Amino acid sequence: MVTNRIVIIPTYNEKENIEAIVRKVFSLDTPFDILVIEDNSPDGTAAIVKKLQKEFSQLHIIERKGKLGLGTAYIAGFKWALAHNYEYVFEMDADFSHNPEDLVHLYKACSEKGGDMAIGSRYVSGVNVVNWPMGRVLMSYFASKYVRFVTGMKIHDATAGFKCYTRKVLETLDLDKIRFKGYAFQIEMKFTTWKYGFNIIEVPIIFTDRTQGTSKMSGGIFNEAVWGVIKMKLRSFFTKYER
């Protein structure tokens, strides 16, 4: 079945989750293709994906030489999706912290409600996070508050990594000028989309922390976001956003 929707899933050591997440996405009534960006996982994640490709023609993989960062993984995926003429491009984690069924809600926010970007938001309707330690919930929640304060964006979940982009957004943004590779990548993509005047819709989701595999979050990634947001805001004063 030909579809204009593709879900990009970056992986590093996700052997416990990858087959289940692929099968779940492909079981949805709304069809999606999948592109896995695989960063040379030593646990054999790539081999599992390649085995699944024999069953699913709509499953694709880009293998990279090492752990090169979340941002560069998504940028590689965006460029691949544009080259293959997809109209709706999604970001999603492999670990079921993002419910695959919410892909349909993100898609409809763009295809039916006029969104240029749709964000799966943990904080647009309260705090909808399950299984996180309270300290991490507070860190994430106040990080978004901090980003709103510094940037002026009226987005409740500035660090969310569950999103749908329309093709015109990804074609407008200069992907080679996106600077951040870690946690702050998600902020920079939203901020740049917002500065270009695109319509951003937040879709409420329930975020559930992974039960399989290991989290990739670290203090260094968080620090990049704290100081990076200030630098990003300052650079924006000297940047033209025209489309």
From TrEMBL:
Domain annotation Glycosyltransferase 2-like: ranges: 7-172
GO cellular component: a single term: membrane
Presence of the UniProt keyword Isomerase in the record: no
Gene3D superfamilies associated with the record: Spore Coat Polysaccharide Biosynthesis Protein SpsA, Chain A
Gene Ontology terms for molecular function: dolichyl-phosphate beta-D-mannosyltransferase activity
Keyword check for Transferase: yes
Bilayer-spanning residue ranges: none
InterPro entries (alphabetical): DPM1-like, Glyco_trans_2-like, Nucleotide-diphossugar_trans
Keywords linked to the UniProt accession: Glycosyltransferase, Transferase
GO BP terms: glycolipid biosynthetic process
Family named by the database record: Belongs to the glycosyltransferase 2 family.
Protein name (record): Dolichyl-phosphate beta-D-mannosyltransferase
The organism's taxonomic lineage, starting at the top: Bacteria, Pseudomonadati, Bacteroidota, Bacteroidia, Marinilabiliales
